[in-house]
Write a structure and sequence with these properties.
The structure is a homotrimer. Chain A has about 350 residues and is of the alpha/beta class. In chain A, strand 4 (about 40-45), helix 2 (about 50-55) and strand 5 form a beta-alpha-beta unit. In chain A, helix 1 crosses helix 3. The longest helix of chain A has about 35 residues, at about 315-345. The mean pLDDT of chain A is about 95. Chains in contact: A-B, A-C, B-C. Strand 39 (about 310) of chain A pairs antiparallel with strand 38 (about 300-305) of chain C.
Chain lengths: ~350, ~350, ~350
């Protein structure tokens, strides 16, 4: 993948504070994998297991850790954290396209909204009454920013994001296409006539440096707020129900659903396809394996799992039949124990 | 959370037919939880277990059940169903913002569409040929209402809802942002050349008082219609496949997927992250626990479950290894039984 | 369901190369199920088990296989593959509505985009700089086509589809409402300050004749491309992570999530609600049962499963308790074996 301009290896090393070994003037204009990089591209080695691939790479330079410092003769950047170094270097090579500040003529901005002159509002966007749009914000085409919403500086809304009224998005946060923030939580009371809607009068408050993937939904609180703290990263198609709190720097993979009023701690790592029931407290530093279900609060950091890897179908059917038959088998086992006990006594 | 105006406790009690005990003139301008309510706010107690919190609340009044009538000296509303009472009171305090009828100048309305003068069509909405939009309907910004769609009175479409052609939404139904109604069902036939698309010529018919959460999808029928009956409540990111029928007043929590041609009865409660295979009949009054899988029709009301709560990872790995080894263990158990049988005979 | 015009049975048989038995002039103006078809409609029998329903049908004609050739006296189309024949006949009866070429006045097209005069761009659509829109393409209302995107001939984007910059969609592919193609993959590196975003500089490349269901998301590659090969059919609300490759003619049902860098072969059939972890290789011809989890690469075609059907709740709780107790039971079984061994020796 080619960048719009080239940099010297020295310039790139400065992006991550790495040490250059070899020709610091090497020109780099793109990135590639060890296997497919072409001359002019930079690659990276984050795991010594792939040293063999390193030997065959056609890249012009490589980022690697101190333990692999001498594993190549290519010009290189040595960094204690080569993957983080790659992230910063790639950000230098591929900066987000500059948005030209201004409001597109087709956007509909309520006269009472405060839009920074340094913000960019795209075609067919709508900004409601009393909304506040900070400097450097980009509101993509077709976004709907509700009444009294606050988008702090440098927030980026990709196309077709909806932020319901009264929600607040912290600085530098990124929301991908199709995200819905602040829809009503799923709250209702039952009476003889059917279900009665409970007005959802809380908000969604999102901290700084949060990233939210495409088509993810975060519901507004029933009475108090739903809160996504700073540095949280949510993948695509995640559902966060009303009144949840997700702690700072926690990451959640795609297709996971968190039920209402559950609080997840800081620095957690939640896999994809996970479910959490409501009203739980998950402490800091918890890892949940993909496709697992959490039904109780967790007070100890560690890894929690209930996922079952598949087997060839016939084999799984046998496992399943045995699982279903367990109550009978444990009964038989008890009978055997008693028999043996009796036999032994009789002898 | 503060409402735009205050009400007397008496006025609010009338919203739910509750009995006022204490000062009926108490002014209420908001709602709060037992724990966080501030003076001027109303709170509620739906479970006597929280009586302790009731003692510490700073709320100005409380809704509670007859069994807790004397659990506080605060002004209060006594109701046989305090949660439903709270729902109605909160609706009084926080009515939906009034929409000003009219069509936004940026909306694109086909000349053959019939739009009630008492309907509101937001910016950048599109209404197709032959569509019928009833009185009190609100079509939010960026919605796309297809050809010949009928939105009955007081339907509310939040921003960016898409309703494909020929579908019908019943009165007072609410569709949240990103909902897609009437996309093609997943139907195709295989021949030597690959998959051949089967035209999906049915519709989606949605009854009265239905609510559908953000980014939920309901596919149109292959030949006949997909039907969501009155009073159904669907949470976010649910997928309802073609030809399904969801019975009146059934509620389904987030991230659940219902496969094609499955019929769910009335007054069911389906948890989040549930899967149902296709062509099933689920009778009225069934509850499915979150994260469970339904593979057969259900003819008896009751609770059905197959979800597995997580354990600490190492412990789960042991459970899993044992599960996989079950066929061997049951074999060993049989051998033991035979041995013991033989021993006993020999004696 | 009624079509806009009628056809003779002969004309319809030609759509699928079937043989007409009985009156070839029979007029057909719609399709119906065996059970609910009315006169003037065509129905089909794909499974001899439903022969009884065939006897009662009110349809004017029927499509069936050679083995059922004489199971009715109705005019009929006999086809070796009656379901594929039905698909082609229904396509004849219900062609997609013709789109009138041209750009709607409310659409915003960058002057550097190349839009075929035979393409249709709907209201409130946005087409970015350098995009290329082929002949016969339909871009629905509110779609956002990013910079340098290529939509090959006859692509159809339903309303509110977002295609991020640089992605490419093959000819005749259909993307349903709410689809997001090319959002950033979920890639970040950790350092002391938190998570650092890794720029996602690959693209999404979609082949010919692909169909993608409502609100499905396909992320762009981190460095190389995410690829969906020709003839793939994706249902609603699927998540395909960065760097995946889905092989030609593979079908995936709703709510399934595929983690990053996993490669799925050709002609696979992946059920709904399935999860796959990242970096796997799934060979051609694999079937995965709905609600199963794939954690390892698969090298043999066949069916793979790990889903657990639900039971009545109390019964399942007993199964679950037994599952949890397995380590103890296997221990007890070992003890018994040893005891019995000892007893036997002592005798």
């Amino acid at each position: 993948m080619e960048a719009t301009r080239s940099y010297s290896l020295q310039e790139l090393a400065e992006a991550c504070g790495g040490e250059v070994v070899g020709d610091a003037h090497t020109r780099i204009q793109g990135v590639g994998t060890l296997e497919h990089a072409v001359p002019g591209e930079l690659t990276f080695l984050t795991n010594s297991l792939y040293r063999d691939q390193l030997l065959g790479t056609r890249a012009s330079a490589v980022i690697l850790g101190p333990e692999d410092r001498n594993a190549t003769t290519l010009p290189r950047i040595v960094s204690a954290n080569p993957y983080a170094c790659y992230a910063r270097v790639a950000q230098r090579l591929f900066p987000l396209p500059e948005a030209v500040p201004g409001v597109h003529s087709s956007a509909v901005i309520d006269p009472s909204a405060q839009v920074s002159p340094a913000a960019t509002i795209g075609p067919h966007a709508t900004v409601g009454a009393g909304a506040v749009i900070g400097s450097g914000v980009v509101v993509g085409p077709g976004c709907v920013v509700g009444e009294r919403v606050v988008l702090e500086n440098d927030v980026r809304l990709y196309p077709r994001v909806v932020v319901y009224p009264d929600c607040r998005i912290g600085p530098r946060s990124i929301l991908h296409a199709g995200v819905v923030i602040g829809a009503d939580g799923f709250g209702m009371a039952r009476d003889a006539e059917g279900w009665i809607k409970i007005p959802q009068v809380g908000r969604v408050i999102i901290g700084a440096d949060v990233e939210i993937g495409a088509n993810t939904t975060v519901d507004r609180g029933a009475i108090e707020d739903t809160v996504i703290e700073e540095g949280v990263k949510l993948d695509n198609q995640i559902q966060i129900a009303h009144n949840c709190r997700v702690g700072a720097h926690t990451v959640i993979a795609g297709c996971t659903g968190i039920s209402g009023s559950t609080r997840i701690g800081r620095n957690c790592r939640i896999g994809g396809g996970v479910g959490m029931v409501g009203h739980l407290d998950i402490c800091d530093g918890v890892t949940v394996s993909g496709f697992s279900l959490i039904t109780k609060s967790i007070t100890q950091p560690g890894v929690y799992t209930s996922s079952i890897p598949s087997q060839p179908h016939r084999q799984w059917m046998e496992t399943l039949a045995n699982l279903r038959a367990l109550p009978q088998w444990t009964q038989k086992l008890k009978t055997l124990e008693q028999k043996l006990e009796k036999n032994t006594k009789e002898e």
